[in-house]
Amino acid sequence: MRAETLEALAAAGRERRAAILVTDLESGDSRVVAEDGSFSEDPFGDELMARFRSGRSGLVESAHGKAMLTVRLPPPRLVIIGAVHIAQALAPMAGIAGLDVTIIDPRTGFAAVGRFPGARLYPIWPEEALAEVPLDAFTALAAMTHDPKIDDQPLAAALVAGCFYVGALGSRKTHAKRLDRLVSLGVDPVAAARIRAPIGLDIGAQSPAEIAVAVLAEVIEALRRRGGDT
């Protein structure tokens, strides 16, 4: 493998960008394809898109030959704003599902180690925490405090960063007021419409644990449909 190919893969890893190593099985030549839309004319274009969504490597064949597609996706993350009861159920579930979980809440009475054993916990304001853990396209953000002073800034930041999932707890009436606030802060109304609220798939969830299941299912759905219709 050429040095420039290795460096392209390493750079994608450092920058938390998705990439696919395409290896021609006849010539042995390899190249790196980035998830930036530039592969629309690629001989394996449709298959590349599908692999970026699924994260699965494998053999492909077209009129142009056979190739091995080795998919490199950044580990998906879930940032939870609000160390609430739902978060207590959601954090371990998300960890089991393979998500790297971060919990942010400036209210130290909620963001206590005893309530979230083993979790990455930031008992500081979201603006400070997100300076240390920047959002990106492989991050999901779930805002759960019901407090605009805590939720609104990270929601706006998640939309700017292109997070694959942005959700917020609250009724439709509450969310309508939230959208008004975000737009007044300069958030594009089209971008704001990406926020999933009420949060979670509609499975009739009632308890904090059931709501956590609904949220996690919605996050996984969004992860596997990145770049496609949701």
UniProtKB/TrEMBL annotation:
Gene3D superfamilies: NAD(P)-binding Rossmann-like Domain. InterPro entries: MoCofactor_Util/Proc, XdhC_Rossmann_dom. This is Predicted sulfurylase large subunit, molybdopterin cytosine dinucleotide biosynthesis. Pfam families: XdhC_C. Residues 78-219 form the XdhC Rossmann domain. It comes from Kaistia soli DSM 19436.
